[in-house]
Write a structure and sequence with these properties.
six-stranded mixed sheet; single chain; alpha/beta; 21 helices; five-stranded parallel sheet
Length: 819
C-alpha cells in the first residue's frame, strides 16, 4: 500500500478491482463504508462475479478474468480525451514531460527491442532522449512534443475505445463509460480517489502490468501521494508484507536490496551494479535516495556476520550466496521434477532436498500433479507446519493426482510441529506497512516449537557437525552472528532490535564532527544514521526506527490523531521512517501548498515540511528535490523502462486464451511470459476448453488451514467444495443446483457441488456469447474427516508473469460436465 487501511476513509472515489475486500478483507472493508458514510464516496466494483463488495457498491461492472489492462487503459484514454486528468500534477510529479529516444516504438503487439528467439526485450531501446546541451535528458514542460512520455501514452491508449473495451472485457459500453466518468472525476486538486487490488491482479501472466496500469491511471489523475489516494494492495495474509520486506522472494534481500549474481565477485562490483544512477541532472539529482545503497548493504552484512565482517574481507560479501539463474519456487520445482538444473543446461543435478516453512506447495502450486511428481524425486523433505498438509503427506495423495506408489518414492519426510500465530510473539507487518507487536496468547501444544527455535536448532546442529567433521565452505555458517541471550530460542524483541539497527562504534554528527550522534551499542533512530564503513548494523533498513533507544515502537498504541486523517503516528510503526503515506511530497504543488488544504499530506511552512513524516529531506525547500526519491528520475513513471514486458501496459490474453487478441491477433498472449515444457506441463486450447475459469477465497476459510480444524464452526458454515456456474450455462448443460459436476482442464479434472448462480453473467466477448465459472481455492486431500475436497490447483497452468514469476491462477480454460 502507498497509503493505508484507515486512509481509505479519506477518498472521494474507490475503485475496487482485482479483489473482493468485503469478503476477503472484511475488517479493513469498514473504511470503505466509512468513506461512503462520511464523504459520500462512490464505490465502484469491477469483478467477474457480483460479489458482496459489488452488493454495497454504487456501481458494478462485470469483466472477463484477465482483461483488466484493457479496462484501465480505456479509462486512461477517457481521461486524456476528455481532459479529466490533473495536468499540473503530471507536469510536476511524473515523467510525462520526458522525451523518449527514437529507438522506442510499438507495432503489432510488440515493443521495440524484442528478441523472438529469447522471448525477451532489449530495454536499451526504451531509453530517454539525451539533452545535447546538458548531461541529462530532454524534457518538454508543455507536454506537446510528440515524443514526450505523455504524448506517447496518449497514442498508445488511443486504441482502447469504449467499444474495444466492451469487445475485450465484455463490459457493456454504457457501464464502462459510467465507471470512467466517476473515476476521472478525481483528476483535479479538489477530489481524490484510491484504487484497491489484491490477488485478482497479481496472479496473471500480465499481473505486474495490471498494477502498472492502475499506477499509471493514478499518476495521471494526480492521486498518488495524497491522503485518500494511492495504489492500495491488500495482502492475502496478516504478515505477507513483512515476509516480502524481509527477503521473502528469491531476487531480493531484506529491504528490497538485490540478491547478488555470480559475475558480481566482490562488493565493489555488486554496489556499482545495484546502485541506480540518477537520471536527468535536475536540481534533485542528489536525492536519488538509492545513493545510500552501500550504507544499507554494508549494515546488512554486519548484521549477518558481526565482528567477522570487516572492511578487509568485503564485510563478508563472499559468504553471501550468489545466484546463477532463476531460483523462484516454480523453477525449483521444475528442476526437482526434471532431476536436473536448467540453469546449467541440464548438466547439473536438481535439488536433493527441500526445507519448507509454512508453505504448502502441493496445495498452492499450479498443476498439482507436477508438484507431487517433483517431491517424489527428492531424497528428503523437511516440513515445518502446524498441521499435516498436502505437501507433508504428498505420498498419500489420491489416485487422481497420479503420484507414484508410496513404496517407490525415495523421499524421507520430516514433519516438525510449529507454533501457530497465537502461540508466539513478534510483529505483524500488515498491508498498510504498519509493524505491530503481538503478544503470545498461549504456549504451543506438545512438541511444537516457535519458528526461531526450529531455525536456531538447525543452525546450531549444522555448526556442531562442521566442528566435528569439517566440510566445504565453513565460513558462511561458522561466522553467522548469533549473539542472542538465548541462542537456542532467541527473544524476538532482540531480533527486532537487530533488524532496526544499532551503532557498533561511535557515530559522529555529520553537521558537527566534534559531536557524537550515537555511541557504540545504542539503537539507531532510523536509516538516516546508517554508515557504509562497518560502524552500524541493520537487518532491514526499511524497518529501521522500529526499535530505538525509546523502546519498541511496534508496541505503541496511541490513538492520538493530530491531522484528523487517521494517520495515528504513535500507533505501531509504519515503514519507512514511520511515514503513513508514501510519496507525500506529491500531495502538494510546486510551491509546497497542499492540493487540497482539507486533506493535507505535508505542507511547506517556510522552514520545513509539516504534517506526515515527509518523503523528502524535511528542511529542503520546494523545488530542491523530486517527490519520488526512490526513482532515478525523481518523478513518478507513466513510462517505466525497467519492466520485462514493456514500458507501457498492454492488453494480452491469458496464456490459455479464449479468443485471439482483438488488438493484435498474431501476438495474443504476453510474448515474454514464462512457461515450462515437461510432459506434465500441458496447456489447453479454446477449441477443447471453451469456458474461462477463475479462482477465489471465502471469508470462512483460511487458505488450506481451516479444513484441519476438527470441530471448526467455520467448516460448518462452508462445509464443502463447490463450483459456481451461471444459470444459463447450467441450463445449457442440464446441471441442477446442488448436483455433482466435474470441471476439466488440460491438466486434470476435479468434482464438486454445482452452485448455480446469477452472480456470473454471460458476457459477449469479441462479438460472441461467452461463459465463465469459478470456484474457491480451499480444501484438499489432507485435513479432518469430512472436511477434505479437491485441490483447485489441479486445473491451473504452469504459466507466469515475467517480472515476478507469479503463476496465472486467475484465468485459464476449462470445460464443465455433469458428473
Amino acid at each position: 500500500m502507498t497509503n493505508g487501511w484507515v486512509d481509505i476513509k479519506n477518498a472521494d472515489v474507490i475503485l475496487a478491482m482485482g479483489g473482493n475486500p468485503a469478503e476477503n478483507h472484511p475488517v479493513g472493508f469498514k473504511w470503505f463504508i466509512e468513506a461512503k458514510k462520511t464523504r459520500n464516496a462512490k464505490l465502484i466494483a469491477v469483478d467477474p462475479r457480483f460479489t458482496r463488495t459489488a452488493a454495497v457498491a454504487d456501481l458494478y461492472a462485470p469483466i472477463r478474468p484477465g482483461t483488466d489492462i484493457a479496462f484501465l487503459n480505456g479509462i486512461i484514454r477517457y481521461a486524456i480525451e476528455k481532459k479529466r486528468y490533473h495536468e499540473d500534477y503530471v507536469k510536476i510529479h511524473t515523467n510525462g514531460p520526458y522525451i523518449v529516444g527514437e529507438k522506442f516504438g510499438f507495432q503489432d503487439g510488440l515493443f521495440s527491442g524484442f528478441d523472438a528467439a529469447k522471448g525477451e526485450y532489449d530495454k536499451a531501446a526504451w531509453g530517454y532522449q539525451p539533452d545535447e546541451k546538458t548531461t541529462g535528458y530532454s524534457v518538454d514542460p508543455t507536454l506537446q512534443n510528440p515524443r514526450c512520455v505523455f504524448q506517447l501514452l496518449k497514442a498508445h491508449v488511443d486504441r482502447y475505445t469504449p467499444e474495444m473495451v466492451e469487445r475485450i472485457c465484455g463490459t457493456p459500453k454504457a457501464t464502462f463509460e459510467k465507471v470512467a466518468e466517476i473515476v476521472t472525476s478525481t483528476g483535479n486538486a479538489e477530489r481524490v480517489g484510491t484504487i484497491t487490488y489484491a490477488l485478482g491482479w497479481t496472479q496473471h501472466s500480465t499481473g505486474v502490468q495490471m498494477i502498472r496500469a492502475g499506477a499509471t491511471l493514478q499518476l495521471l489523475l494526480g492521486n498518488v501521494g495524497r491522503p485518500g489516494g494511492g495504489m492500495n494492495a491488500f495482502r492475502g495474509h496478516s504478515n505477507i508484507q513483512g515476509a516480502t520486506d524481509t527477503g521473502g522472494n528469491t531476487e531480493i534481500l531484506p529491504g528490497y536490496l538485490k540478491t547478488p549474481v555470480g559475475p558480481q565477485t566482490n562488493l565493489k562490483e555488486y554496489l556499482e551494479t545495484a546502485t541506480p544512477t540518477t537520471l536527468n541532472k535536475q536540481a534533485w539529482a542528489t536525492m536519488n535516495y538509492w545513493v545510500n545503497y552501500p550504507k544499507f548493504m554494508v549494515s546488512l552484512l554486519k548484521s549477518a556476520w558481526g565482528k567477522a565482517a570487516t572492511r578487509e574481507n568485503d564485510f563478508g560479501y563472499d559468504w553471501l550466496p550468489k545466484t546463477d539463474g532463476n531460483y523462484s519456487w516454480m523453477y525449483i520445482f521444475d528442476d526437482m521434477y526434471r532431476g536436473s538444473s536448467m540453469r546449467a543446461g541440464g548438466k547439473e543435478p536438481g535439488p536433493e532436498g527441500l526445507v519448507s516453512f509454512g508453505m504448502n506447495p502441493v496445495g498452492l502450486g499450479p498443476n498439482s500433479k507436477k508438484m507431487i511428481a517433483a517431491l517424489s524425486k527428492l531424497k528428503w523433505l523437511v516440513m515445518v507446519e502446524n498441521v499435516e498438509t498436502e505437501t507433508a503427506s504428498f505420498w498419500k495423495a489420491p489416485r487422481e493426482y497420479e503420484g507414484p506408489e508410496p513404496s517407490k518414492i525415495p523421499t524421507e519426510v520430516f514433519l516438525l510441529p510449529a507454533a501457530n500465530f497465537a502461540e508466539k510473539d513478534g510483529t505483524f507487518t500488515n498491508s498498510a506497512r504498519w509493524l505491530q507487536w503481538k503478544w503470545k496468547a498461549l504456549d504451543p501444544p506438545g512438541q511444537a516449537k516457535a519458528d526461531q527455535e526450529i531455525l536456531s536448532r538447525m543452525l546450531l546442529a549444522v555448526r556442531d557437525l562442521y566442528k566435528k567433521e569439517g566440510g566445504a565452505l565453513p565460513d558462511p555458517v561458522m561466522n553467522v552472528s548469533w549473539s542472542y541471550t538465548n541462542p537456542v530460542n532467541p527473544d524476538l524483541a532482540e531480533v527486532l532490535k537487530e533488524m532496526s539497527g544499532k551503532a557498533l562504534a561511535d557515530i559522529p554528527d555529520p553537521k558537527d564532527k566534534t559531536k557524537i550522534l550515537k555511541t557504540a551499542g545504542q539503537q539507531l533512530d532510523g536509516f538516516g544514521q546508517l554508515q557504509d564503513d562497518g560502524s552500524t548494523m541493520c537487518g532491514n533498513w526499511l524497518h529501521s526506527g522500529v526499535y530505538t533507544e525509546a523502546g519498541n515502537n511496534a508496541q505503541r498504541r496511541s490513538t492520538a490523531d493530530p491531522t484528523g486523517l487517521g494517520m495515528y503516528p504513535n500507533w505501531g510503526f509504519s515503514w519507512p521512517a514511520n511515514r503513513r503515506v508514501m510519496y507525500n511530497r506529491a500531495s502538494a504543488d510546486a510551491e509546497g501548498k497542499p492540493w487540497d488544504p482539507r486533506r493535507t499530506g505535508i505542507a511547506w511552512n517556510g522552514e520545513k515540511w509539516v504534517g506526515d513524516v515527509p518523503d523528502i529531506k524535511p528542511d529542503s525547500p520546494p523545488g530542491e528535490f523530486g517527490a519520488f526519491i526512490m526513482l532515478p528520475e525523481g518523478v513518478g513513471r507513466l513510462f517505466s523502462p525497467v519492466l520485462n514486458d514493456g514500458p507501457f501496459p498492454e492488453h494480452y490474453e491469458a496464456i490459455e486464451a479464449p479468443i485471439a487478441n482483438p488488438l493484435h491477433p498474431n501476438v495474443t498472449s504476453n510474448p515474454t511470459s514464462k512457461k515450462f515444457s515437461t510432459d506434465k506441463d500441458t496447456y489447453g486450447k479454446k477449441e477443447d476448453f471453451p469456458i474461462v475459469c477463475t479462482t477465489y477465497r471465502l471469508t470462512e476459510h483460511f487458505h488450506y488451514w481451516t479444513q484441519h480444524q476438527q470441530n471448526g464452526r467455520l467448516n460448518e458454515m462452508q462445509p464443502g467444495f463447490f463450483v459456481e456456474i451461471p444459470e444459463g450455462l447450467a441450463k445449457e448443460k442440464g446441471i441442477a443446483n446442488g448436483s455433482q459436476v466435474k470441471v476439466l482442464s488440460a491438466r486434470g479434472e476435479i468434482r464438486g457441488v454445482a452452485m448455480v448462480t446469477k452472480r456470473m453473467p454471460e458476457l459477449k466477448i469479441d462479438g460472441k456469447p461467452a461463459w465463465q465459472i469459478g470456484f474457491p481455492i480451499h480444501w484438499g486431500f489432507a485435513g479432518a474427516p469430512n472436511h477434505t475436497g479437491p485441490l483447485a490447483n489441479m486445473l491451473t497452468p504452469s504459466a507466469m508473469d515475467p517480472n515476478t514469476w507469479t503463476p496465472e491462477y486467475k484465468a485459464f480454460l476449462v470445460k464443465v460436465e455433469k458428473a
